[in-house]
Write a structure and sequence with these properties.
Order of helices and strands of chain A: HHHHHHHH
Distance between the termini of chain A: 52 Å
GO biological process, one term (chain B): mitochondrial respiratory chain complex III assembly
Number of strands of chain B: 0
Oligomer: heterodimer
Pfam family, one (chain B): Ubiq_cyt_C_chap
Strand content of chain A: under 5%
Largest interface: A-B, 52 and 53 residues
Radius of gyration of chain A: 20 Å
Organism (chain B): Candida tenuis (strain ATCC 10573 / BCRC 21748 / CBS 615 / JCM 9827 / NBRC 10315 / NRRL Y-1498 / VKM Y-70)
Number of domains of chain A: 2
Helix content of chain A: 55-70%
Structural class of chain B: mainly alpha
Shape of chain A: elongated
Helix content of chain B: 55-70%
Family (chain B): Belongs to the CBP3 family.
Structural class of chain A: mainly alpha
Number of helices of chain A: 8
Number of strands of chain A: 0
Order of helices and strands of chain B: HHHHHHHHHHHH
Strand content of chain B: under 5%
Domain Ubiquinol-cytochrome c chaperone (chain B): 145-288
Chain lengths: 111, 330
Protein backbone atom coordinates (compact mmCIF):
# COMPACT_ATOMS: atom_id res chain seq x y z
CA UNK A 1 0.00 0.00 0.00
CA UNK A 2 1.33 3.41 -0.88
CA UNK A 3 1.27 6.37 1.48
CA UNK A 4 -1.61 7.97 -0.39
CA UNK A 5 -3.65 4.77 -0.20
CA UNK A 6 -3.06 4.51 3.55
CA UNK A 7 -3.98 8.17 3.98
CA UNK A 8 -7.19 7.65 1.99
CA UNK A 9 -8.07 4.70 4.21
CA UNK A 10 -7.46 6.76 7.36
CA UNK A 11 -9.63 9.59 6.03
CA UNK A 12 -12.41 7.17 5.02
CA UNK A 13 -12.29 5.62 8.50
CA UNK A 14 -12.33 9.01 10.23
CA UNK A 15 -15.40 9.99 8.22
CA UNK A 16 -17.28 6.97 9.59
CA UNK A 17 -16.72 8.07 13.20
CA UNK A 18 -19.81 9.45 14.92
CA UNK A 19 -19.98 13.19 15.50
CA UNK A 20 -19.61 14.36 19.11
CA UNK A 21 -22.88 14.21 20.99
CA UNK A 22 -21.81 17.09 23.22
CA UNK A 23 -19.79 20.05 22.03
CA UNK A 24 -16.28 19.96 23.51
CA UNK A 25 -13.39 22.38 23.27
CA UNK A 26 -12.13 20.32 20.34
CA UNK A 27 -13.35 17.39 18.28
CA UNK A 28 -11.20 14.29 17.71
CA UNK A 29 -12.91 13.51 14.38
CA UNK A 30 -12.64 17.01 12.95
CA UNK A 31 -9.12 17.63 14.22
CA UNK A 32 -7.82 14.37 12.71
CA UNK A 33 -9.69 14.86 9.44
CA UNK A 34 -8.06 18.26 9.19
CA UNK A 35 -4.66 16.73 9.98
CA UNK A 36 -4.85 13.99 7.35
CA UNK A 37 -6.56 15.94 4.57
CA UNK A 38 -4.59 19.17 4.73
CA UNK A 39 -0.99 19.97 5.54
CA UNK A 40 2.10 17.88 5.10
CA UNK A 41 1.30 15.19 7.68
CA UNK A 42 1.40 12.34 5.20
CA UNK A 43 4.78 13.22 3.76
CA UNK A 44 6.24 13.84 7.24
CA UNK A 45 5.26 10.45 8.63
CA UNK A 46 7.37 7.38 7.77
CA UNK A 47 5.30 4.78 5.88
CA UNK A 48 5.61 2.19 8.66
CA UNK A 49 4.23 4.64 11.20
CA UNK A 50 1.48 5.83 8.88
CA UNK A 51 0.38 2.20 8.58
CA UNK A 52 0.44 1.88 12.37
CA UNK A 53 -1.77 4.98 12.62
CA UNK A 54 -4.26 3.29 10.33
CA UNK A 55 -4.14 -0.02 12.22
CA UNK A 56 -4.66 1.75 15.57
CA UNK A 57 -7.62 3.71 14.23
CA UNK A 58 -9.11 0.60 12.61
CA UNK A 59 -8.83 -1.36 15.88
CA UNK A 60 -10.59 1.43 17.75
CA UNK A 61 -13.32 1.72 15.12
CA UNK A 62 -13.85 -2.06 15.30
CA UNK A 63 -14.25 -1.89 19.10
CA UNK A 64 -11.40 -4.36 19.50
CA UNK A 65 -10.90 -3.59 23.19
CA UNK A 66 -14.57 -3.30 24.10
CA UNK A 67 -15.14 -6.76 22.62
CA UNK A 68 -11.97 -8.30 24.05
CA UNK A 69 -12.45 -7.01 27.61
CA UNK A 70 -16.17 -7.68 27.87
CA UNK A 71 -17.93 -6.17 30.87
CA UNK A 72 -21.17 -7.51 32.25
CA UNK A 73 -24.16 -5.97 33.99
CA UNK A 74 -22.25 -5.84 37.25
CA UNK A 75 -20.52 -2.66 36.04
CA UNK A 76 -22.89 -1.59 33.28
CA UNK A 77 -26.05 -1.74 35.41
CA UNK A 78 -24.48 -1.02 38.81
CA UNK A 79 -26.58 -2.30 41.67
CA UNK A 80 -25.97 0.87 43.67
CA UNK A 81 -27.62 2.94 40.93
CA UNK A 82 -28.97 0.73 38.09
CA UNK A 83 -30.39 3.59 36.04
CA UNK A 84 -27.20 5.69 36.20
CA UNK A 85 -25.86 5.10 32.70
CA UNK A 86 -29.30 5.00 31.06
CA UNK A 87 -30.16 8.41 32.46
CA UNK A 88 -26.78 9.76 31.51
CA UNK A 89 -26.96 8.48 27.94
CA UNK A 90 -30.51 9.65 27.37
CA UNK A 91 -29.46 13.09 28.60
CA UNK A 92 -26.39 13.10 26.30
CA UNK A 93 -28.42 11.93 23.29
CA UNK A 94 -31.06 14.52 24.07
CA UNK A 95 -33.82 11.93 24.41
CA UNK A 96 -34.81 12.92 27.90
CA UNK A 97 -33.94 16.11 29.67
CA UNK A 98 -33.36 16.37 33.40
CA UNK A 99 -36.00 18.63 34.88
CA UNK A 100 -35.47 20.90 37.85
CA UNK A 101 -37.19 18.38 40.14
CA UNK A 102 -35.28 15.34 38.91
CA UNK A 103 -32.06 17.30 39.37
CA UNK A 104 -33.09 18.17 42.95
CA UNK A 105 -33.88 14.50 43.55
CA UNK A 106 -30.39 13.51 42.34
CA UNK A 107 -28.77 16.07 44.62
CA UNK A 108 -30.82 15.06 47.68
CA UNK A 109 -30.84 11.27 47.27
CA UNK A 110 -27.66 10.87 45.25
CA UNK A 111 -29.40 8.93 42.46
CA UNK B 1 -47.98 -55.78 -3.34
CA UNK B 2 -44.92 -53.54 -3.14
CA UNK B 3 -46.51 -51.38 -0.46
CA UNK B 4 -47.36 -54.40 1.64
CA UNK B 5 -43.75 -55.63 1.57
CA UNK B 6 -42.39 -52.27 2.66
CA UNK B 7 -44.80 -52.01 5.53
CA UNK B 8 -44.02 -55.48 6.69
CA UNK B 9 -40.22 -54.89 6.90
CA UNK B 10 -40.50 -51.55 8.76
CA UNK B 11 -39.95 -51.94 12.48
CA UNK B 12 -42.85 -51.01 14.69
CA UNK B 13 -41.74 -47.54 15.61
CA UNK B 14 -44.24 -44.73 15.64
CA UNK B 15 -41.98 -41.79 16.15
CA UNK B 16 -41.56 -38.74 13.98
CA UNK B 17 -39.39 -40.55 11.47
CA UNK B 18 -41.76 -43.42 10.60
CA UNK B 19 -42.28 -42.14 7.02
CA UNK B 20 -38.58 -41.85 6.31
CA UNK B 21 -36.55 -44.67 4.80
CA UNK B 22 -33.19 -42.96 5.28
CA UNK B 23 -30.93 -43.19 8.25
CA UNK B 24 -31.00 -40.33 10.76
CA UNK B 25 -28.55 -37.47 10.19
CA UNK B 26 -27.97 -35.08 13.09
CA UNK B 27 -28.14 -31.36 12.50
CA UNK B 28 -24.81 -29.64 12.46
CA UNK B 29 -24.43 -28.10 15.90
CA UNK B 30 -21.38 -26.00 15.06
CA UNK B 31 -21.67 -23.27 12.49
CA UNK B 32 -19.76 -23.77 9.26
CA UNK B 33 -18.65 -20.17 9.65
CA UNK B 34 -16.93 -21.12 12.93
CA UNK B 35 -13.84 -22.41 11.09
CA UNK B 36 -13.43 -19.05 9.39
CA UNK B 37 -13.83 -17.09 12.59
CA UNK B 38 -10.82 -15.05 13.59
CA UNK B 39 -8.64 -16.47 16.28
CA UNK B 40 -8.60 -14.64 19.63
CA UNK B 41 -6.59 -11.47 18.94
CA UNK B 42 -3.11 -11.32 20.37
CA UNK B 43 -2.86 -8.51 22.89
CA UNK B 44 0.27 -6.54 23.68
CA UNK B 45 0.96 -4.58 26.85
CA UNK B 46 -0.11 -0.91 26.46
CA UNK B 47 3.43 0.41 26.93
CA UNK B 48 4.80 -1.99 24.27
CA UNK B 49 1.98 -1.01 21.94
CA UNK B 50 2.71 2.69 22.41
CA UNK B 51 6.46 2.35 22.01
CA UNK B 52 6.14 0.43 18.71
CA UNK B 53 5.32 3.64 16.90
CA UNK B 54 8.22 5.91 16.03
CA UNK B 55 6.07 8.78 14.79
CA UNK B 56 8.14 11.98 15.02
CA UNK B 57 7.00 13.83 18.15
CA UNK B 58 5.76 17.36 17.51
CA UNK B 59 5.90 19.42 20.69
CA UNK B 60 2.42 20.71 21.51
CA UNK B 61 2.24 24.36 22.43
CA UNK B 62 -0.02 24.43 25.47
CA UNK B 63 0.82 28.03 26.33
CA UNK B 64 1.88 27.02 29.82
CA UNK B 65 5.04 27.22 31.81
CA UNK B 66 4.38 24.54 34.38
CA UNK B 67 5.53 25.30 37.90
CA UNK B 68 7.65 22.51 39.26
CA UNK B 69 7.74 21.26 42.84
CA UNK B 70 10.33 23.02 44.98
CA UNK B 71 9.79 20.72 47.89
CA UNK B 72 8.63 17.19 48.44
CA UNK B 73 5.73 16.53 50.80
CA UNK B 74 5.03 13.15 52.43
CA UNK B 75 3.37 10.81 49.91
CA UNK B 76 0.30 10.15 52.07
CA UNK B 77 0.74 12.19 55.23
CA UNK B 78 3.01 12.68 58.20
CA UNK B 79 0.68 10.62 60.36
CA UNK B 80 2.33 7.46 61.68
CA UNK B 81 -0.92 5.52 61.07
CA UNK B 82 -0.39 5.98 57.32
CA UNK B 83 3.28 5.08 57.38
CA UNK B 84 4.28 1.88 55.63
CA UNK B 85 4.43 -1.15 57.92
CA UNK B 86 2.56 0.57 60.75
CA UNK B 87 0.99 -1.80 63.22
CA UNK B 88 -1.24 -0.76 66.09
CA UNK B 89 -0.26 -1.95 69.56
CA UNK B 90 -2.17 -5.04 70.70
CA UNK B 91 -3.80 -3.12 73.61
CA UNK B 92 -5.17 -0.48 71.25
CA UNK B 93 -6.32 -3.21 68.89
CA UNK B 94 -8.28 -5.11 71.56
CA UNK B 95 -9.77 -1.87 72.89
CA UNK B 96 -10.84 -0.92 69.35
CA UNK B 97 -12.42 -4.34 68.73
CA UNK B 98 -14.34 -3.95 72.03
CA UNK B 99 -15.67 -0.50 71.07
CA UNK B 100 -16.73 -1.73 67.59
CA UNK B 101 -18.59 -4.66 69.16
CA UNK B 102 -20.18 -2.60 71.93
CA UNK B 103 -21.47 0.22 69.69
CA UNK B 104 -22.17 -2.06 66.70
CA UNK B 105 -20.19 0.21 64.40
CA UNK B 106 -20.89 -0.27 60.68
CA UNK B 107 -17.41 -1.28 59.61
CA UNK B 108 -18.14 -1.12 55.88
CA UNK B 109 -18.78 2.61 56.29
CA UNK B 110 -15.83 3.09 58.63
CA UNK B 111 -13.50 1.17 56.31
CA UNK B 112 -14.14 3.62 53.43
CA UNK B 113 -11.74 6.09 55.09
CA UNK B 114 -8.76 3.78 55.24
CA UNK B 115 -9.42 1.93 51.99
CA UNK B 116 -10.75 4.58 49.56
CA UNK B 117 -9.37 7.62 51.37
CA UNK B 118 -5.89 6.20 51.87
CA UNK B 119 -5.08 3.01 49.94
CA UNK B 120 -6.96 3.74 46.70
CA UNK B 121 -6.02 7.41 46.92
CA UNK B 122 -2.34 6.42 47.06
CA UNK B 123 -2.85 4.06 44.09
CA UNK B 124 -4.35 6.89 42.00
CA UNK B 125 -1.76 9.43 43.10
CA UNK B 126 1.34 7.35 42.41
CA UNK B 127 0.46 6.56 38.75
CA UNK B 128 1.60 9.88 37.32
CA UNK B 129 3.62 11.19 40.28
CA UNK B 130 6.97 12.76 39.46
CA UNK B 131 9.48 15.12 41.01
CA UNK B 132 12.09 17.09 39.06
CA UNK B 133 15.55 15.54 39.18
CA UNK B 134 14.21 12.25 40.51
CA UNK B 135 13.98 8.98 38.58
CA UNK B 136 10.47 8.23 37.33
CA UNK B 137 8.49 5.20 38.46
CA UNK B 138 7.54 2.59 35.82
CA UNK B 139 4.01 3.96 35.45
CA UNK B 140 5.23 7.58 35.32
CA UNK B 141 7.73 6.56 32.60
CA UNK B 142 4.80 5.34 30.52
CA UNK B 143 3.08 8.75 30.66
CA UNK B 144 6.04 11.11 30.52
CA UNK B 145 8.52 9.13 28.40
CA UNK B 146 6.53 6.72 26.22
CA UNK B 147 3.52 8.98 25.67
CA UNK B 148 5.74 12.10 25.94
CA UNK B 149 3.22 14.07 27.99
CA UNK B 150 4.40 17.30 29.63
CA UNK B 151 5.46 17.08 33.27
CA UNK B 152 3.05 19.40 35.05
CA UNK B 153 0.70 19.45 38.01
CA UNK B 154 -2.30 19.61 35.65
CA UNK B 155 -1.08 16.58 33.70
CA UNK B 156 -0.66 14.66 36.95
CA UNK B 157 -4.22 15.64 37.86
CA UNK B 158 -5.55 14.36 34.52
CA UNK B 159 -3.81 11.00 35.00
CA UNK B 160 -5.11 10.80 38.58
CA UNK B 161 -8.65 11.63 37.42
CA UNK B 162 -8.54 8.81 34.87
CA UNK B 163 -7.66 6.37 37.66
CA UNK B 164 -10.22 7.90 40.02
CA UNK B 165 -12.88 7.37 37.35
CA UNK B 166 -11.96 3.69 36.91
CA UNK B 167 -12.36 3.15 40.65
CA UNK B 168 -15.60 5.19 40.68
CA UNK B 169 -17.06 2.86 38.02
CA UNK B 170 -16.46 -0.07 40.38
CA UNK B 171 -17.68 1.83 43.44
CA UNK B 172 -21.02 2.48 41.72
CA UNK B 173 -21.48 -1.29 41.56
CA UNK B 174 -21.23 -1.61 45.36
CA UNK B 175 -24.38 -1.28 47.51
CA UNK B 176 -25.42 2.37 47.09
CA UNK B 177 -24.75 3.50 50.66
CA UNK B 178 -21.19 2.15 50.68
CA UNK B 179 -20.28 2.95 47.08
CA UNK B 180 -21.24 6.58 47.55
CA UNK B 181 -19.20 6.77 50.74
CA UNK B 182 -16.13 5.23 49.08
CA UNK B 183 -16.37 7.70 46.16
CA UNK B 184 -16.75 10.64 48.54
CA UNK B 185 -13.76 9.61 50.66
CA UNK B 186 -11.57 9.15 47.59
CA UNK B 187 -12.43 12.45 45.93
CA UNK B 188 -12.18 14.38 49.22
CA UNK B 189 -8.71 13.00 49.81
CA UNK B 190 -7.55 13.80 46.27
CA UNK B 191 -8.59 17.46 46.68
CA UNK B 192 -7.22 17.74 50.21
CA UNK B 193 -3.88 16.46 48.95
CA UNK B 194 -3.93 18.88 46.01
CA UNK B 195 -4.66 21.80 48.31
CA UNK B 196 -1.67 20.94 50.48
CA UNK B 197 0.66 20.31 47.54
CA UNK B 198 -0.25 23.53 45.75
CA UNK B 199 0.79 25.38 48.89
CA UNK B 200 3.74 23.27 50.09
CA UNK B 201 5.30 21.94 46.90
CA UNK B 202 4.46 24.60 44.32
CA UNK B 203 4.78 27.42 46.84
CA UNK B 204 1.48 29.19 46.09
CA UNK B 205 0.84 31.40 49.10
CA UNK B 206 -2.50 32.95 48.15
CA UNK B 207 -5.45 30.95 49.52
CA UNK B 208 -7.78 32.60 47.05
CA UNK B 209 -5.62 31.42 44.15
CA UNK B 210 -5.51 27.88 45.52
CA UNK B 211 -9.29 27.89 45.95
CA UNK B 212 -9.77 29.07 42.36
CA UNK B 213 -7.44 26.35 41.06
CA UNK B 214 -9.31 23.72 43.04
CA UNK B 215 -12.67 24.89 41.69
CA UNK B 216 -11.32 24.70 38.16
CA UNK B 217 -9.89 21.23 38.73
CA UNK B 218 -13.22 20.11 40.18
CA UNK B 219 -15.07 21.32 37.08
CA UNK B 220 -12.51 19.48 34.94
CA UNK B 221 -13.05 16.31 36.95
CA UNK B 222 -16.83 16.45 36.41
CA UNK B 223 -16.29 16.90 32.66
CA UNK B 224 -13.80 14.02 32.54
CA UNK B 225 -16.12 11.66 34.41
CA UNK B 226 -19.00 12.47 32.05
CA UNK B 227 -16.85 11.95 28.94
CA UNK B 228 -15.31 8.71 30.21
CA UNK B 229 -18.76 7.40 31.22
CA UNK B 230 -20.03 8.13 27.73
CA UNK B 231 -17.03 6.28 26.27
CA UNK B 232 -17.60 3.32 28.57
CA UNK B 233 -21.21 2.97 27.41
CA UNK B 234 -20.66 3.56 23.69
CA UNK B 235 -17.55 2.47 21.81
CA UNK B 236 -13.77 2.49 21.75
CA UNK B 237 -13.54 5.57 19.52
CA UNK B 238 -15.69 7.65 21.89
CA UNK B 239 -13.60 6.47 24.85
CA UNK B 240 -10.45 7.14 22.82
CA UNK B 241 -11.66 10.65 21.98
CA UNK B 242 -12.41 11.32 25.67
CA UNK B 243 -8.90 10.15 26.60
CA UNK B 244 -7.43 12.23 23.77
CA UNK B 245 -9.16 15.39 25.05
CA UNK B 246 -8.61 14.83 28.76
CA UNK B 247 -5.30 13.00 29.09
CA UNK B 248 -3.50 13.66 25.80
CA UNK B 249 -4.46 17.38 25.90
CA UNK B 250 -6.34 17.24 22.58
CA UNK B 251 -3.03 17.14 20.74
CA UNK B 252 -3.83 17.51 17.00
CA UNK B 253 -0.61 15.65 16.10
CA UNK B 254 -1.34 12.76 18.44
CA UNK B 255 0.04 9.31 17.78
CA UNK B 256 -3.05 7.10 17.29
CA UNK B 257 -1.08 4.23 18.75
CA UNK B 258 -0.90 6.17 22.03
CA UNK B 259 -4.67 6.63 22.07
CA UNK B 260 -5.10 2.92 21.36
CA UNK B 261 -2.64 1.97 24.12
CA UNK B 262 -4.56 4.05 26.67
CA UNK B 263 -7.92 2.60 25.59
CA UNK B 264 -6.47 -0.89 25.98
CA UNK B 265 -5.05 0.06 29.41
CA UNK B 266 -8.38 1.44 30.63
CA UNK B 267 -10.52 -1.40 29.27
CA UNK B 268 -8.09 -3.98 30.73
CA UNK B 269 -8.26 -2.45 34.19
CA UNK B 270 -12.05 -2.16 34.01
CA UNK B 271 -12.13 -5.86 33.16
CA UNK B 272 -10.17 -6.66 36.33
CA UNK B 273 -12.50 -4.42 38.33
CA UNK B 274 -15.43 -6.30 36.81
CA UNK B 275 -14.04 -9.61 38.07
CA UNK B 276 -13.21 -8.58 41.62
CA UNK B 277 -15.91 -9.16 44.24
CA UNK B 278 -17.43 -6.37 46.34
CA UNK B 279 -15.76 -7.66 49.48
CA UNK B 280 -12.29 -7.90 48.00
CA UNK B 281 -12.66 -4.43 46.49
CA UNK B 282 -14.11 -3.02 49.70
CA UNK B 283 -11.15 -4.40 51.69
CA UNK B 284 -8.67 -2.70 49.31
CA UNK B 285 -7.46 -5.81 47.49
CA UNK B 286 -7.50 -4.18 44.06
CA UNK B 287 -4.30 -3.00 42.38
CA UNK B 288 -4.12 -1.30 38.98
CA UNK B 289 -2.50 -3.51 36.35
CA UNK B 290 0.53 -1.44 35.23
CA UNK B 291 0.84 -0.44 31.56
CA UNK B 292 3.75 -2.81 30.94
CA UNK B 293 1.60 -5.85 31.79
CA UNK B 294 -1.13 -7.52 29.73
CA UNK B 295 -4.61 -8.35 31.04
CA UNK B 296 -5.93 -11.60 29.60
CA UNK B 297 -9.61 -12.54 29.90
CA UNK B 298 -10.28 -15.33 32.40
CA UNK B 299 -11.83 -18.70 31.61
CA UNK B 300 -14.89 -19.86 33.60
CA UNK B 301 -12.68 -22.26 35.57
CA UNK B 302 -10.21 -19.50 36.45
CA UNK B 303 -13.04 -17.25 37.61
CA UNK B 304 -14.36 -20.03 39.82
CA UNK B 305 -10.90 -20.72 41.24
CA UNK B 306 -10.43 -17.02 42.08
CA UNK B 307 -13.78 -16.93 43.87
CA UNK B 308 -12.82 -20.01 45.88
CA UNK B 309 -9.52 -18.40 46.86
CA UNK B 310 -11.31 -15.25 47.99
CA UNK B 311 -13.78 -17.27 50.05
CA UNK B 312 -10.93 -19.12 51.70
CA UNK B 313 -9.11 -15.88 52.46
CA UNK B 314 -12.13 -14.23 54.06
CA UNK B 315 -13.25 -17.36 55.98
CA UNK B 316 -10.82 -16.50 58.79
CA UNK B 317 -11.69 -12.82 59.07
CA UNK B 318 -14.06 -12.95 62.00
CA UNK B 319 -12.96 -10.03 64.19
CA UNK B 320 -15.52 -7.27 64.89
CA UNK B 321 -13.44 -4.86 62.77
CA UNK B 322 -13.57 -7.31 59.86
CA UNK B 323 -17.37 -7.55 59.88
CA UNK B 324 -18.92 -6.82 56.52
CA UNK B 325 -22.09 -7.20 54.48
CA UNK B 326 -20.25 -6.86 51.16
CA UNK B 327 -20.79 -9.79 48.84
CA UNK B 328 -18.21 -12.45 48.02
CA UNK B 329 -20.21 -13.67 45.03
CA UNK B 330 -20.48 -10.50 42.97
Amino acid sequence: MSRVEIKDKIVALLKTLPKDRIQHYTSFRESQLDRFTTGTTVTDIPEKDLKLQYIALRDLANDKYKNYYKLDDKLLRPKGNPEYYERLMSEIKGEKKETFWTAIRTVVFGK
Amino acid sequence: MMIRTRISVRPQVFGLRWLSNQSKVNFQTQSILQQFKDKEPEMDAPSKMASESTLPHIQQDLNIKPKQAKKKSAFLSDSKEEAEGFEMSSIKQSLGQMVIKLFKIDMDSARAGSVAGSKYFGDCKKQGMYYPNEPLSDTAKFYYETLQLPQSFSQWFQITTLHYWMLAVRMRAMPFKYGKNYQQKLVDRIFRDMELRLAEELGITSNRLIENYLKEYHTQMLGCVLSFDEGLMTDDTTLGAAIWRNVLNGNPNVDMRHVEALVSYVRGNLYVLNQITDREFGFGKFEFVPPHQVVKPLTAAQKEALKEMAKKEFANKNLPSQKTVLSLDE
